[in-house]
């Protein structure tokens, strides 16, 4: 179930585009107030990747 929800959420982002953390947060805030938990799940399940410096995705 969680994977299905994350698959829908990731549709809000353009494939191949690099996003700043602020941009990711802005999109996720519209979906759920605890946007950080969604962002972490997207990373954990491989839907998005984060750079080593944690500034872009």
UniProtKB/TrEMBL annotation:
<dbReference type="Pfam" id="PF09860">
    <property type="entry name" value="DUF2087"/>
</dbReference>
<protein>
    <recommendedName>
        <fullName>DUF2087 domain-containing protein</fullName>
    </recommendedName>
</protein>
<feature type="domain" description="DUF2087">
    <location>
        <begin position="2"/>
        <end position="57"/>
    </location>
</feature>
<dbReference type="InterPro" id="IPR018656">
    <property type="entry name" value="DUF2087"/>
</dbReference>
């Amino acid at each position: 179930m969680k994977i299905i929800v994350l698959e829908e959420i990731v549709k809000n982002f353009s494939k191949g585009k690099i996003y700043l953390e602020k941009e990711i947060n802005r999109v996720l805030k519209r979906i759920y107030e605890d946007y950080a938990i969604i962002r972490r799940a997207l990373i954990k399940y491989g839907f998005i990747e984060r750079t080593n410096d944690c500034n872009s995705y």
